[in-house]
Amino acid sequence: MAEVIYTRPNIISKGRNTRGEREERTEDILVCPESLGDQQQGSVGTEESSKSLGTGRSQRPDAVSPTKCQIWAVVVLLGLLSVVMLARLIGLAVQHTKTASMDRDVEQLLQRLKNVTEQRDALLCQQCCPDGWDKFGFKCYQISNVLGSWNESREFCVSHGADLVVVDSKEEMDFISRYDSYFWFGATDAAGGGMWRWVDGTVLLLDNPSWSRGGPVGGEDSNCLLRAYEPNQFKWTEESCETITLGLCEQNVIN
Predict the structure, then answer these.
(1) Residues 222-236: what's their mean pLDDT?
(2) What is the pLDDT of residues 72-99, one digit of tens each?
(3) β-strand 222-230 against 163-164: which pairing, if any?
(4) Does the reported pTM lie above 0.90?
(5) Which helix (H) or strand (E) segment is 42 a member of?
(6) 222: which residues sit within 8 A by CB, 6+ positions away?
(7) Is 110 exposed, middle or buried (0-12, 13-18, 19+ CB in 10 A)?
(8) How far apart are CA 254 and CA 248, in angstroms?
(9) For residues 46 and 163, which has the higher predicted lDDT (pLDDT)?
(10) Which three-class secondary structure state does DSSP give residue 4?
(11) Domains of the chain by range and CATH?
(12) Could you tell me how far CA 2 lies from the centroid of its own chain?
């Protein structure tokens, strides 16, 4: 009788080969070293547990947690965002600093201009008027001592380095009201067209509150400006240029 030889399958070698194949497949996949080590340890632990227990028992899978690579990626991304935000804040701060610096420079220039103007005005106010002239602001005033027409009174003022008075403000009008006499002002409409002008070329408005009776009447021969007489008021009015009276001369302070 022929012997029947039973060949026992090499379970151990087969198992080793299978494990070797698993390890080779695992090496072909690019993963993080940390996760590979965890997977290998988990595989070994599972095999050993299966061998030791002998029977498979259902177990609850562990919760999936982020790997170290994923955590580092998030950290790097947050770091980049922080750098971008910091650069933007620095840019805004520099821009704000430039704007504030320009504002300070403008304020300093305006203050210097104000100081220079005040110093100039103070120096001008310290200047003197000729003897017999009255000073107000930056001007000197004197009533002519010769009677004459408007043109003759102006010639007298010009011969003394002055001209007939030009009123620039209410304050000046209040000042010259101290002279208690009739006198010529330096304004006329002799050029025609109903346009009144001061001797310096500026226009005398017809609605100026210093006009007597609210404005010029428009007489044909009344082309020069003369002080008007109104009780308790100081006004001017139009008058014939040939009227004989005094003139009020005005000049700038002596430098």
Answers:
(1) 87
(2) 777 778 778 878 887 888 887 777 777 7
(3) unpaired
(4) no
(5) helix 33-53
(6) 216, 238, 239, 240
(7) exposed
(8) 18
(9) 163
(10) coil
(11) 13-50 (no CATH), 134-252 (3.10.100.10)
(12) 116
